[in-house]
Amino acid sequence: MRALSSLLLLVALPVALSVKTQDFKTCSQASFCRRGRALASRAQENVSSWKSPYSVDADSLAISSDQALFTARVKSSLYPDIKFGLDVRVHDDGVVRVRLDEIDGLRKRYDEAASWALVAEPKISQDIKWTVGKNEVRATHGKKKDVEVIVAFEPLKVTLLRGGKEQVVLNGRGLLHMEHFRTKLAAQPSDIPEEALDAEDAQTVLSANNPRSWFEGDSEDGYWDEQWLSWTDSKPKGPESLSLDITFPNHGHVYGIPQHATSLSLRTTTGESPYYTDPYRLYNADTFEYLADSTMSLYGSIPLMHAHSADSTVAVFNAVGSETWIDIAHPTPKSTETQWISESGILDVFIIPGPTPEAVFEQYARLTGAQALPADWSLGYHQCRWNYVNSDDVRQVQAKFDEEDIPVDVFWLDIEYAEEHKYFIWDKKNFPDPLDMVNDVSANARKMVVIIDPHLKRTSSYPVYQEAVDNGVLVKTKDGNEYEGWCWSGSSAWVDFFNPTSWDWWKGLFKTYPIEGKFTWVDSTEDVHIWNDMNEPAIFNGPEISMPRDNIHHGGWEHRDVHNINGMLFSNLTSQAVMARSDPPKRPFVLTRSFYAGSQRFGAMWTGDNLGSWEHMAVGIKMVLANSLSGFAFSGSDVGGFFGNPEPEMLVRWYQVGAFSPFFRAHAHIDTKRREPYLLDEPYKSIVKDILRLRYSMLPIWYTTFREASVRGIPVVRPHYVVIPHDEKGFAIDDQFWVGGSGLLVKPVTEKGVTETTVYLPAEDQVYYDYFTHQAYRSAPKGKNITVPAALHQVPLFIRGGSILPTRERPRRSSPLMKKDPFTLRVALDKSGNARGELYLDDGVTYNHREGQIVWREFKASKAGKGIKLSSHDLVRAKPTDAVDGVALASYNPTNDFAKSIAGVRVEKVVVLGLEKKPTSVKVAGGKEVTFEFIPGVAASGKKEGVSSVLIIKDPAVSVVTDWEIVVS
Amino acid sequence: MVPWVLLLLPLSAFSAVDKTHGVPPSLLASYVPTKDGSQEIWTCIDGSKVIPWSAVNDDYCDCPDGSDEPGTGACPNTRFYCRNEGHIGAFIPSSRVRDGLCEPACCDGSDEEPGVCPNKCKEIGEAYRVKQAAERKLRKTGSKIRSSYIAFAQKEKKRIEGEIASLENEIVSREKEVARLKDIADHAESLSATALEQKKQSPLYQSLLAHHRALKSLQCEHKKHLEREKSLGDILDRLRTGYNPNYQDMAVLEAVRGWEFHAGLPHINDVKKDDEPSTEDESETGKDEEEELEPGMWTPQQLEHQLDELLDQDYESLLLEHDKHVGATEHSDSLLYNLSAYVPEPLLPQFEAFQNALVSWLELLGIVKPSKSDAADDSRAKKAYNDADHSLKLTRDELTKAKEDLSRLFDSNWYGKDGEWKKLDGTCLEKDTGDYTYEVCLFDEARQKPNKGGSTFSLGRFAHWNNGPGVEVGSPEYYSKQFYIHGTKCWNGPQRSVVLELECGTENALHTIAELEKCEYKITGTTPALCLPPDEPEKPREEL
Question: What is the pTM of this model?
Answer without folding.
Answer: 0.86
